[in-house]
Amino acid sequence: MEYTIGDRVRGKVTGIQPYGVFVELDEQTQGLIHISEVKHAYVKDLHELFEVGEDVDVMIMDIDEYSKKISLSIRSMIKAVHHPFSNPRKNPRFDRKRGIGFDTVAEKMPGWIDTALKEISEQSEE
After folding, report:
1. In the Cβ-directed half-sphere of 102, how many Cα atoms lie within 13 Å?
2. With contact defined as beta carbons under 8 Å apart, do 74 and 87 qualify?
3. Of 18, 23, 20, nearest to 37 (Cα)?
4. Is residue 72 exposed (0-12), middle (13-18) or buried (19+ Cβ within 10 Å)?
5. Per-residue pLDDT of the chain in tens (126 residues, 90 and over written 9)
6. Domain 7-77: homologous superfamily in CATH
7. DSSP characters for 13-73?
């Protein structure tokens, strides 16, 4: 069968090593799920997650045309639970004191104009 990058396929686990899981896609094609592509969290032991003979759904990440090796991933099919900027206190792109973050100029301009007009009117009243 002909596979392309991005295909979602079902395969059968044929082997488990410390570095990854071998998956048979069809009778002539086998791929590897590297341990880093199993899930978004740390994986200590692949034997806790997989058994030989188990069916798994995977996504084809890369196909090496020369060696015919296929890189597979389960992680890319699962939405990440944690976003690196989910905690605003740890987000370097957001200033909590002033409430300034990355917005478009078109979104910020009306606020800037209002602030400038208020400052001008306050100065002229003094």
Report:
1. 4
2. no
3. 20
4. buried
5. 688 899 999 999 999 999 999 999 988 889 999 999 998 888 899 999 999 999 999 999 999 888 888 999 999 888 766 565 566 556 555 555 555 556 778 888 899 999 999 988 888 876
6. Nucleic acid-binding proteins (2.40.50.140)
7. EEEEETTEEEEEEETTEEEEEEGGGS-SS--S-GGGT--TT-EEEEEEEEE-TTT--EEEE
Rg (CA), the chain: 26
> What's the CA gap between 98 and 55, in Å, rounded?
52
Q: 36: number of CA atoms within 13 Å, CB side? A: 2
Residue 32: CB atoms within 10 Å = 17
